[in-house]
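ping. complex inputs:
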Amino acid sequence: MPTLPQTTRRERQREATYDEIVRVSRDLLAEGAELSLRAVAGRMGMTAPALYRYVGNYQELVDLVAFEIDKAATATFAAAADELPEDDYAGRLVVSVTEFRRWALRSPREFGLVFANPIADASCQRRELLTLASSGHLFTDQMRALWEHNHHPIPALDDLPETIRTSVLDPLIPAEVEGLATEDRGLVWIYMQGWTRLYGVVALEVFGHMDPRVIESGEMFISVVREFAPVIGVEDDVERLVGLVRARLALP
Amino acid sequence: MPTLPQTTRRERQREATYDEIVRVSRDLLAEGAELSLRAVAGRMGMTAPALYRYVGNYQELVDLVAFEIDKAATATFAAAADELPEDDYAGRLVVSVTEFRRWALRSPREFGLVFANPIADASCQRRELLTLASSGHLFTDQMRALWEHNHHPIPALDDLPETIRTSVLDPLIPAEVEGLATEDRGLVWIYMQGWTRLYGVVALEVFGHMDPRVIESGEMFISVVREFAPVIGVEDDVERLVGLVRARLALP
DNA sequence: TCAGTTTGGTGAACGGTGTAAACCGTAAAC
DNA sequence: GTTTACGGTTTACACCGTTCACCAAACTGA
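pong. complex structure:
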């Protein structure tokens, strides 16, 4: 039997249609076109109302596509890390976030879809998008691997503000905390700070609210990497890490 | 003669219409409605094509409204600063940026319009929006006043990357550098770094890509303030400054 | 095998958007 | 007082998300 059990023919067909929806949507975005139900349906040889058999409304289409875009982009961030030795934890993290910036500046529309779409005030399903973000998982995993190797100092739970303490004990963010001892949860706070800095500089550059020459040079991004290095205990390695960043930013 | 010279009746009429366009647009946004040419025109008792006598296209309307929203919001940031003594430079800066965050979280649509609209790849006029941003002017002015008072260390020009050096010598950002000595231009780089951190944390919170409980508590914003304090030489004052932030965040 | 139901599509329609063209009365300008 | 330019309208086009009624084909169970 070539088909797995419990997957009827219809289910496979439906799954294939979902994949095509995502593929066509990504093609449209890559071509600089607007993401619209009619455009997607038209390119699939369907009419727009047919898409309502697959997504409840336009926002659901956006969420679906955003999720898949994030997943695909994250794969490239991970691939960049795999160019380095497995035990170069700091290098892998730095190379991944650099690839994140490159991707964002290269695909501003996609970045906006994934990272500049309001999530806070939405339904439960959209809130789960927060904890399911592929990129978030990658960065947390890499940062945790780095910490488990060099055990740089992290804040004690008692030193954290109360809200932060409850948040790191039961995180709503894409952090794998299973098996991370309670007293080590300060690492999650460090991660949140790192994500804030990374998101901040990249969003600022993507939206262009800064001197274009500075953006083009990447020096602000490098400055952020440099200043965050001590926080994750890699200040002795920072010149090599910045070298990795510069080499990646110079790529075509 | 009650009318100023060189302002014909038509010009005053036209100016009044511009004002009404902006006023109506801001009302629409404040009510949670979409900003559209038809809605604005309708509320003004006109038809949509008539607006084309005032703005070239929809994006120009957005730019116009965004500029005025930024101006009005900046007035509230400045007003918050004026609650403090004139010589409390650090306090005034901190209170202003706190009000910036409060405004952004209270008016996410307006924030998106002003600060999450791509500027980089647009025409010259939109690029000028960068150097005309009212909020940028306020923050740079406050930071410069602080520096001229306590003269905290700033990077020397020779220590800056070349791109940054040329950028701070002839800034494209809303910084008043007239009269700021060439050797002191490292301050502009400090400002850019501060803006990156401020924009970053606020944008992240507005778009909700973070644990909602952390956003609600404001602890990430406080953490950013706390970590930036040493950069502008106010680390000895940081507990008082954080107190100012907390007091402001507790406001209704 | 046949009846019944679910699935996935169509076409028409509603109200909404930005935008372009043609047209026109009135106010300003010479 | 004639001319011009401004500021508006009407109409129209091509999109958009969304709903509804309808229908054929595919699955389902007796």
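The two ends of chain B are 48 Å apart (CA to CA).
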